[in-house]
């Protein structure tokens, strides 16, 4: 009998990869905090992960009703390459939308969530190793 890592780990591997990509986006925002006209970007983590889960048949996301023929179809959001612009709470005079405190807070929150996912996966691997050994 073979072990399927995708079945054993579920969506957690993709969640870790997405957390890394989000950290890169947030770090880029922080690096450009003083660049005139720079627009802060972010990834909608829940939407991207939800689409990945749906594509793997893990869970069907809630369908939204299209009340107008011009509405975007469900699942139009393609992934981490489709970055969203962050709405600034106080835009600066030079057009830069990076709020350093907000970016730092989001970066730290993302880092903690990455660590949590990593520890979860580490526990899964320990459990699989234990099962293989027969401990």
List descriptors.
single chain; two-stranded antiparallel ribbon; about 50% helix; 4 helices; mainly alpha; elongated; about 140 residues
Describe the structure.
This protein is mainly α and 135 residues long. The chain is built from 4 helices and 2 strands. The protein has one domain (9-133). It has helices at 5-9, 12-31, 45-55, 100-133, and strands at residues 41-42, 84-85. The chain has a two-stranded antiparallel sheet.
Write the layout of secondary structure elements.
Blueprint: H1 5-9, H2 12-31, E1 41-42, H3 45-55, E2 84-85, H4 100-133
Antiparallel strand pairs: 1-2
**Count of separate DSSP helical elements:** 4
Mean pLDDT: 80
What strand line-up does the widest sheet have? 1-2
Q: Give the radius of gyration.
A: 19 Å
Number of domains: 1
The proportion of residues in beta strands is: under 5%
- Form type: elongated
Low-confidence spans: pLDDT under 50, at least 5 residues? 71-80
Structural class: mainly alpha
Cα-to-Cα separation, first versus last residue: 18 Å
Summarize the amount of helix as a percent range. Answer: 40-55%
Strands, count: 2
Element-level helix/strand string = HHEHEH
For the sheet with most strands, the description reads: 2 strands, antiparallel
């Amino acid at each position: 009998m073979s072990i399927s890592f995708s079945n054993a780990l579920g969506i957690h591997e993709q969640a870790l990869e997405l957390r890394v990509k989000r950290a890169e986006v947030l770090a880029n925002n922080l690096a450009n905090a003083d660049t005139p006209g720079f627009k802060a970007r972010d990834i909608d983590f829940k939407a991207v992960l939800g689409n990945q889960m749906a594509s793997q048949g893990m869970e069907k996301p809630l369908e939204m009703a299209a009340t107008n023929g011009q509405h975007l179809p469900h699942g139009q959001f393609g992934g981490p390459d489709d970055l969203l612009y962050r709405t600034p709470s106080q835009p600066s005079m030079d057009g830069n939308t990076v709020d350093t405190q907000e970016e730092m807070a989001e970066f730290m929150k993302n880092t903690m969530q990455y660590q949590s996912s990593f520890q979860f996966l580490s526990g899964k691997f320990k459990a699989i190793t234990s099962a293989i050994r027969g401990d």
